[in-house]
Amino acid sequence: MTSVDKISVHISVVLGRAVMPIHQLLRMGRGAVIELDVSEEDDVEILANDIPVARGQVVLRGDRIGISITEVLTRAPDFRPQAENARI
């Protein structure tokens, strides 16, 4: 096992976004629906440690939900991860 194999990456998927007044959010209860700014056919955004890395489609496999990657994003050449106590 190499040292790279020991690194964990937090993966998250953004289905869509919504903006609403805080008073509306506070009134929501169980069963409330938040409408997102996307349609069923739109790609979802895949983030690695909060950085967009790919786009994909939602896939249902039995009772499980997955993501099929449709596009891998290229990062900007001047991108540098921000690390605590980083020295330049």
TrEMBL record:
GO molecular function (one): cytoskeletal motor activity
Domain Flagellar motor switch protein FliN-like C-terminal: 4-73
Alphabetical keyword list: Cell projection, Cilium, Flagellum
InterPro entries: FliN-like_C (IPR001543), FliN_T3SS_HrcQb (IPR001172), SpoA-like_sf (IPR036429)
Keyword Nucleotide-binding recorded: no
Family: Belongs to the FliN/MopA/SpaO family.
Protein name listed in UniProt: Flagellar motor switch protein FliN/FliY
Origin organism lineage: Bacteria, Pseudomonadati, Pseudomonadota, Alphaproteobacteria, Hyphomicrobiales
